[in-house]
Design brief:
The complex is a heterodimer.
Chain A (H helix, E strand, L loop, with lengths): L2 H10 L1 H24 L3 H17 L1 H14 L3 E5 L2 H14 L4 E4 L3 H6 L1 H7 L3 E4 L2 H8 L17 H12 L7 H18 L2 E4 L3 E3 L4 E6 L3 H7 L3 E7 L3 E2 L2 H15 L7 E5 L13 E7 L3 H4 L15 H4 L2 H6 L10 H12 L16 H5 L6 H14 L5 H14 L2 H19 L4 E2 L14 E2 L6 H11 L4
Parallel strand pairs in A: 1-10, 2-3, 2-4, 4-7, 5-8, 7-10
Antiparallel strand pairs in A: 5-6, 6-9, 11-12
Helix pairs in contact in A: 2-12, 3-4, 3-12, 9-10, 16-18
Chain B lengths: L4 E4 L3 H6 L1 H13 L3 E3 L9 H5 L3 H15 L4 E4 L2 H14 L4 H12 L1 E3 H8 L11 E6 L2 H6 L4 H7 L5 E3 L15 H4 L1 H18 L3 E4 L2 H13 L6 E4 H6 L3
Parallel strand pairs in B: 1-2, 1-3, 3-4, 5-6, 5-7, 7-8
The chains are: A alpha/beta, B alpha/beta.
Chain lengths: 468, 244
């Protein structure tokens, strides 16, 4: 995961930069308007934090309650410790039911697990039915760049070219025509798939239900038409009651897309009952750990509150500038820069905790008040403790802190530094290449200092006009 | 009434790069009737160490700063970033040592960013500066989101007859500086700065003004690289204080 090299490439990608500029304002403006419409956003936010804390502080208890209720509804509950186990369990379920084709509603956990590749390897065809995910799947399985808008890095024109190429149809330039084309392709898959696979926005412990927030209706097709429905979700997604669900639903769509409610909102409970006309005959929950249990009770506990709205990345100056792919794994933006080190290994993501200006816009907009900058800072500390940062950086920082504790030495260093920078700037009054920090001058100048330090000038002034 | 004794925390960046911001701060505080002391041994608040994951270095510098500044009625600094580090982070940094934590908490409660101090504590009704021209104000992140610095600088600038405020789009968005971020990810940092500079230029203001030198160096450096030679980049203290 080479964030820095990825970021450079993304900055140089003219098409992507144009697409990012177009996308930038939309989420931010819509969220701001939606929040304003809510009578008591801060109060709702506090209630949401309380609900999420209640669960993650006693996660085992709530998971057991959920499991019992889910079993009572006729569902089966399976536990996966990692992505490989998710792939194994889902493949086994598919084989048990003779499944050849799986329609999928959006699931980030399936991305975490690399499930599509595993299904294909087992001879089972996965079909993404969320429009964004579908676009990416037919574009050589490109990974998503955003957790709720996976193809946000693509423009209308990109999609028009793509559909023309992969569907072999005349190139269309209107969004309704393109979505209609995707629907026509997907309809056949909805009718022929033997198994549907979805994520889960929340698991409701009191009823054993899964709640799904979608905008395209594909989620309903996936979860009700095939005879088998598999829900894959992280163990932290459980919440106690339907009342809690209604509280969280007041802030999730508003924070995510700026909608007061998503176009579709489903609460799915149990298998099809004799008197019912649709729904799956077999319902499986695959509840996934993949690093989550290790986060419980530790320095990063608050991260488990996350409800995957994407507001942090939508508002992040770094994400807005480079897009999601540069982050290198499933989750981008500030939440991703915390989750990736936690779930994929702190040593495998050296750059990510540093890939933030700590501007705290993410912390301000997070509907469950996760202190993302504090968590990023904590990860930096862990990296330093484990000696994972580059040696020159570690020595430089320690040396600087050592000198800063010695005022006389520090004053001398600052004085020499100010003169050196002034000399470097020369008459142009700016430095075009800063030898001590060349990164700075890659894309901007470094302004010249005045030449003497404040402490020198202040001492001189005091000597000239001694005070009484 | 006894004069308010203020310890001026100059900040390492102002000391190194722009001493006149320190003198402007001094002038503003003295004009408002404060007895200002500049502790000579001060260096850096330790924020770079803290944000880089060097907790021991950050703790050592926090203790040093507390010892130097706890004797004053107030600590004032021309930076929302350093001010916020002292106010918000020191007590947390020293949580494991109750004596130091209490000293940190006490210092935090008396630490102010300059414009906040002038407006909230001193309630000044005039400022000495005579700046003329249009300005646009960049709200720096820590000051804005952690210390609530938004209206204070604008209230002070509004007292200046020659100053016309032209708000830019996205004035609350990060400029891309981010301390060590600016030298670890120079290209990304400069790209974020470019968006800020585009907004500055679109405002049509003659000067961009802010309360944190780190952001201002970033914005000035980017403006000049973009070929803009005319837009002034000034610290709010310089504008408010006038000639020092």
């Amino acid at each position: 995961m080479h964030f820095k090299a990825n970021a450079s490439a993304k900055l140089a990608d003219v098409v992507l930069q144009g697409n990012l500029k177009n996308a930038k304002g939309k989420f931010v403006t819509k969220r701001a308007e939606a929040i304003k419409d809510l009578d008591d956003f801060e109060g709702t936010r506090d209630a949401a934090v309380a609900i999420r804390n209640k669960v993650i502080d006693n996660l085992d208890l709530w998971l057991e309650r959920f499991e019992q209720k889910a079993l009572d509804t006729g569902a089966q509950v399976l536990w996966a410790k990692d992505g490989a186990e998710v792939c194994r369990l889902v493949t086994e379920i598919a084989k048990r039911h003779g499944v050849k084709k799986v329609t999928k509603s959006k699931s980030m956990l399936s991305e975490e697990a690399g499930l599509n590749q595993a299904l294909e390897a087992a001879g089972i065809q996965p079909v993404e039915t969320d429009l964004g995910e579908y676009i990416l799947q037919v574009d050589n399985n490109e990974p998503p760049s955003h957790i709720i808008a996976p193809a946000v890095h693509k423009s209308l024109s990109d999609v028009a070219d793509l559909f023309h190429k992969v569907h072999g149809t005349p190139r269309k330039t209107e969004i309704p025509a393109l979505t209609r084309e995707a629907r026509e392709v997907l309809r056949g898959h909805f009718l022929s798939a033997e198994m549907g696979l979805s994520g889960g926005n929340f698991l409701v412990a009191e009823t054993g239900s899964v709640a799904l927030v979608t905008n395209e209706g594909n989620g309903r097709m996936v979860t009700t038409m095939p005879k088998v429905h598999v829900v894959i979700t992280g163990i932290e997604k459980v919440i106690p009651t339907l009342e809690d669900l209604s509280t969280l639903m007041r802030i999730l769509p508003r924070s995510a897309t700026g909608q007061s409610i998503s176009n579709y909102f489903s609460i799915l409970t149990g298998v099809k009952r004799p008197e019912e006309h649709d729904g799956p005959e077999h319902l499986y929950f695959v509840l996934v750990d993949s690093g989550r249990a290790d986060v419980v009770g530790g320095d990063f506990h608050a991260m488990l509150r996350c409800i995957r709205c994407g507001a942090c990345m939508n508002h992040c100056p770094v994400y807005q500038t480079i897009g999601g792919h540069a982050y290198g794994w499933v989750y981008p933006g500030p939440m991703g820069s915390v989750l990736t080190p936690l779930y994929a290994g702190i040593e495998n993501s050296i750059d990510l905790p540093h890939a933030a200006t700590l501007c705290n816009q993410c912390g301000i907009v997070c509907p469950v008040k996760i202190p993302l900058p504090d968590l990023l800072r904590k990860l930096r500390e862990k990296q330093t403790e484990r000696g994972l940062r580059p040696l020159t950086e570690r020595i430089g920082l320690r040396l600087w802190a050592w000198v800063a504790q010695r005022p006389t030495l520090y004053a001398l260093g600052a004085s020499l530094g100010a003169r050196y920078l002034k000399w470097l700037a020369g008459e142009s009054n700016r430095i075009r290449l800063l030898p001590t920090a060349p990164e700075w001058t890659l894309g901007r100048d470094f302004p010249a200092p005045q030449g003497k330090t404040f402490r020198e000038l202040y001492a001189a002034r005091r000597n000239a006009t001694p005070r009484a | 009434m006894a004069k308010v004794r203020v310890g001026l925390f100059v900040t390492c960046l102002v000391d190194l790069m722009r001493p006149r911001i320190g003198f402007a701060t001094l002038k503003l505080l003295e004009t408002a009737g404060c007895d200002v002391v500049v502790p000579e041994a001060q260096t850096c608040c330790g924020q770079p160490a803290w944000n880089s994951g060097d907790a021991p270095g950050a703790v050592a510098l926090a203790k040093k700063t507390i010892a130097e500044f706890e004797g004053f009625d107030y600590v004032v600094t021309p930076s929302g970033s350093c001010g916020d580090h002292i106010r918000s982070e020191y007590p947390a940094l020293l949580a494991a040592e109750p004596d130091w934590r209490d000293r940190a908490t006490a210092l935090a409660s008396r630490t102010y960013e300059l414009t906040d101090f002038l407006v909230t504590v001193l309630k000044v009704d005039s400022v000495p500066g005579d700046h003329e021209g249009s300005i646009t104000y960049h709200d720096s992140c820590s000051g804005l989101r952690s210390m609530g610095i938004k209206d204070q600088p604008r209230a002070l600038l509004a007292k200046m007859n020659g100053v016309e405020l032209r708000e830019m789009n996205g004035c609350e968005e990060c400029c891309g500086f981010g301390g060590t971020f600016s030298v670890k990810f120079g290209e990304v940092s400069a790209a974020i700065a470019e968006r800020k500079c585009d907004n500055v230029l679109a405002s049509g203001a003659q000067a961009v003004v802010g309360g944190d030198l780190g952001c201002l160096l970033n914005i000035e450096g980017k403006l000049r690289r973009m070929g803009n030679e005319t837009t002034q980049v000034l610290h709010v203290a310089e504008v408010l204080a006038g000639r020092v």
